[in-house]
Amino acid sequence: MGFYEEIAKYYDYIFPIGNDQIEFLAKEAGFTSKNVLDIACGTGGYSIGLSKLGHDVTAVDLDYQMVQVLNEKIIDTDLKINAMVGNMLELDQLLSNNYNLAFCIGNSIVHLDKEKAIGQFFEIAKSLLNDKGKLIIQIINYDRIIMYNVKSLPTIKNDEIKLNFERLYRYEKEDNVVYFKTILKVDNKQIENEIPLYPLLSDDLCKLLKNAGFKDIQLYGDFKGSPYDKSDSFTVVAVAM
């Protein structure tokens, strides 16, 4: 069983849906019904939030179990969500190009192994948007991670189910890879995992978006719309048109 398949039933306790994210996404989508694409949707909390606001949502994730959890949530509802399993590098083979907004948040794109793959994803995302469509990307601020040799992120705790989720970083300069180790402690068990992430810097993020055909790119330091600061912001939120 893969790591994400193992943690699917705990996902919403680890990463509860944030109001700031919903409000930010809703503002960028606009306040009339739009076609929205949630890429690397996890268990679909943001898809559900946007669907409740009247948007038609397509939600895609590589992990079958994550999509299964989302489908279980929307059974017997009137929410307009089409949830499917899919690879973000193959979305142009699954979907048509009619989206007003696409978003990929939660540090997902850095699971792609190189700049070339990330650039390819941006090109695919661009091809799926209509003429005025927007792409929103959110990742950890790797400028700050590398600048200060950050070793860990704050441990996530959920007292409701006595859950601890530790997040450890190890940057290997020679290979330009961040090894991301997670330790989930819950239900009297411990689940560990370590994966390589590509430390995409903010300047390179902008470069790849421009190369993919996006002309207007705005960077923020969080979903409240704070100014982005390479040395201080914990995350990078990019809005590209």
TrEMBL record:
Keywords: Methyltransferase, Transferase
Gene3D superfamilies on file: S-adenosyl-L-methionine-dependent methyltransferases (2.20.25.110), Vaccinia Virus protein VP39 (3.40.50.150)
Pfam hit, one: Methyltransf_25
Molecular function terms, GO-annotated: methyltransferase activity
InterPro entries: Methyltransf_25, SAM-dependent_MTases_sf
BP terms from Gene Ontology: methylation
Transferase recorded as keyword: yes
SUPFAM superfamilies: S-adenosyl-L-methionine-dependent methyltransferases
Methyltransferase domain: residues covered: 36-131
Keyword Zinc-finger (UniProt): no
CDD domains, per database record: AdoMet_MTases (cd02440)
Protein name (record): Methyltransferase domain-containing protein
Organism: Alkalibaculum sporogenes
UniProt lineage: Bacteria, Bacillati, Bacillota, Clostridia, Eubacteriales
